[in-house]
Amino acid sequence: MALHEGHDVLGPLLMRDSLDHCVKCTICETYCPVSNVTPLFPGPKYSGPQAERFRVEDEPSPDSSVNYCSGCGICTQVCPQGVHIAEINTQAKATYGETNGVRVRDRILARPTLAGRLGTPAAPLANLTLRNRLLRLAIERVIGIDHRAPMPKFAGRTFQRWARRHASPAASRRVAFFHGCGTNYYEPRLGEMTVALLEHNGIAVDVPKQDCCGLPLQSNGLFDDARGYVHRLAERLAPFARDGVDIVGTSTSCTLMLKREALEILGMEDDADLRAVSGRVYDICEYLLAMHERGELKTDFKPVPETVIYHAPCQQQGHGVGKPALDLMALVPELRVVESEANCCGVAGTYGLKREKYDIAMKVGAGLFEQIAETAPDRAVCDSETCRWQIEHATRVSTVHPVEVLHRASGLG
Amino acid sequence: MSHHDVVVVGTGLAGLTAAVRLAEGGARVLVVAKGIGATHLSPGTIDVLGYAPERVERPSEALRPLIEAEPGHPYAHVGADGVAAAVAWLKDRVANGSLAPYAYVGSAEENLLLPTAVGVPRPSAVLPETMAGGDLRGGDPVCVVGFSALKDFHAALLADNLERSGVGVKARAIELDLRPEGRVDANALGFARAFEDEAFRNAVVAQVADRMRADERAAFPAVLGIADPHGVWATVEHGLGRPAFEVPTLPPSVPGMRLFAILRTALRRAGGSVLLNNVVIGADQTGGRVTALRTRVGLREERRGADWVVLATGGFASGGLALDSSWAGRETALGLPVTGVPAPGEERFRPGYFEEHPMGRAGVTVDRELRPVDAAGERVLENVVVAGATLAGAVPWREKSGDGLSLATGHRAAELVLAASTPAATVGS
């Protein structure tokens, strides 16, 4: 898969220049999940192409309201003129952070590997802490993480550790698995299922040593740190890409980061390793569907007599590849899949965890939570880990990655 | 590479109409688009033919001489019967759609005269039931209801202009200071959502009822509900004890969004899907047929295989057509020939907005089966049909025909593809 060489889509300056295409049609405002539930965010058009004209390089940024943008990216998706609204707003958030400082809380939330490394060996204690109401109230008071916000459970082991002891059977095809922090520290079982599913379909899986993709740092306006993480990850993955090996990931927002956000938002278009990786990285369901289109996917699925509701996260929609998980699950006999009609669950990575934003995030997701309650499914299915945690938190419905459904339908467990 | 029976390019009225009709006809349909289309910006009415060049009272009658005089007009490829069929199809989709019992009324037989947001009488044929009470061809005096926090709708301007317009309907304005969630300002969608809240609606009704006269009808900005417009409108009328109607606002247009929602849901129910942020930048071709579209998605290029392509990318305003710096016309997705652009040095525009501009009819010229043709009239591609504002030969802003053209040609495009596809080869395969 070659990168599109058109210069018009590369580089932060050119992201910014796209604002000249804005015709003030307001379509982005009608879709913005945040400004539709709170007046604290004035909306993507106002904060993006309009306010951007008043942001001058080397001058302090005065507009704190842009911090209420959740970064879901829906505005960019619906814009009929190709304005990179969400990207402009993410850059404006970083500029605001440079001027006014980034809170300690945001610096912590932006480093999932740090939390993962500290929490994994002390998992029982860490999990107890995060589930203790009094301690959570104290955490909220001291650093501002809402005491009600969904926090994942440390698995107490890492996926990397499992992968080091696992040898993929030899096969004519191979992929490199970019598992992300969520799988490594909180959901190692998802990583194991992904490897098993790929191997079941005749693919050998390499699990390179890897760290965070930098997305949470980028979302929290810490661009310099984010660039460091992106670069180190790209260095690890680039040898595979240069060997013609595809890179697949189960964390849809992190694959999007490597596919285009780091190039577009962080201005890393000159990073040769990242460019090599970017042209080879796929979201797992995108990859499996492409295999199916080539007739390479085993489709002798066993019946899964369940009703599930599928929610495509905003970041998955940012890939622009439709909803491959729906097409894949449609191949499973007796599985009834209801499609979510909502655009966003509200959490947007770390946004909904913050004290001042928790209620907004829950309001954004209200439509989805209602539809889930009405559907009363056996489980919900969603490609993004933070969205799964948010959905489970809000609905108490068990929420899994599409790979888990396919793993089971493939008779693997 | 994915493969579909039909890939529709564009999510405006023409593209969605074609996509829904095709999916209902059994085709596997994929819609690709750069972003959301013009429905969100349009009043949600289907203006079949408003001026030809004098004001038209009966569009279906006026269509026949127009078609005879202008054989290159897109309506000539559809025919008056085709227009009527498309209108009937749309009304049926709305009446049985996701917002039912919200319905469209009217037909191509007769134009109503509706006020615009600035109080100009506008001929319109097919429209939401919520607007029909605004017919200015007679009727009660109008009490225009404005909201101080809704910056896109000025009740006094509407009322004053309506009085001056010569239609003979009396009008006056009242303004309310009720705001959704206490916002300083809100757009039309914010108000539409607020109207679905019973407390907000009751507060509006109480204040309007207080100030309305017994012989008046109430004109509201088109914000009477987004999820249940019929219910909101009916309860407002009931509460007032007087007729009430909607007037389209500046964008975002709530009635346009309702129409989009109805068609988008119909497409989903019929099994079609939509991919946004997929910009078509070319096509693979063999023997005069497109085999796959090339799309730019983020930083990548993808290929989308198709047996048929419906091109409904819009005109110059939507980016479906473009002019380069030397004034050469370009169809942006497939590079189809563009006709009607004056040669360098020749006059392009006249001073008056509603004059016949030399480049006013520029676009992609098609044959009777909506296939694109070159300057010599030869078909360029066999399996591409063109619909909507991309088409050459019409002057929608002069004719008040834009939505009618998009609906009729989108519907016709789907019928042509369904008729040309043998069941075994493509449809439902």
Give the amount of beta strand of chain B, in percent. 15-25%
Low confidence ranges of chain A: none
Radius of gyration of CA atoms of chain A, rounded to a whole number:
21 Å
Query: Quaternary state, please?
Result: heterodimer
Q: Supply Rg of chain B.
A: 22 Å
Number of helices in the DSSP assignment of chain A? 23
Beta strand count of chain A: 8
In short:
Chain A has 413 residues and is an alpha/beta fold. Helix content of chain A is 49%, strand content 8%.
Description:
The complex is a heterodimer of chains A (413) and B (429). Chain A has helices at 12-17, 27-31, 44-52, 74-78, 85-100, 104-109, 112-119, 123-130, 133-143, 159-164, 180-186, 188-200, 215-219, 223-242, 252-265, 272-278, 284-293, 314-317, 324-329, 358-364, 366-375, 385-395, 402-409, and strands at 173-178, 203-206, 246-249, 281-283, 307-311, 336-339, 379-382, 399-400. With 413 residues, chain A is an alpha/beta fold. The two termini of chain A are 33 Å apart. Chain B has helices spanning 13-24, 59-69, 74-95, 155-164, 188-195, 198-211, 229-240, 254-269, 396-399, 402-420; strands spanning 2-9, 29-32, 104-106, 112-115, 121-124, 126-128, 142-147, 171-176, 217-221, 244-247, 273-275, 278-286, 289-297, 300-311, 321-323, 329-331, 384-386. In chain B, the strands form 5 sheets. In chain B, strands 1, 2, 11, 12, 13, 14 and 17 form a 7-stranded mixed β-sheet that branches. A 4-stranded parallel β-sheet of chain B has the order 8-7-9-10, sandwiched between helices. Chain B contains 10 helices and 17 strands. The longest helix of chain B has 22 residues, at 74-95. The chains are: A alpha/beta (413), B alpha/beta (429). Chain A binds chain B through residues 1-4, 6, 9-10, 25-27, 29-31, 36, 39, 76-82, 259-260, 263-264, 278-279, 293, 317-323, 339, and chain B through 1-3, 33-38, 40-41, 181-184, 187, 189-190, 193, 251-252, 257, 268, 273-279, 296-302, 318-319.
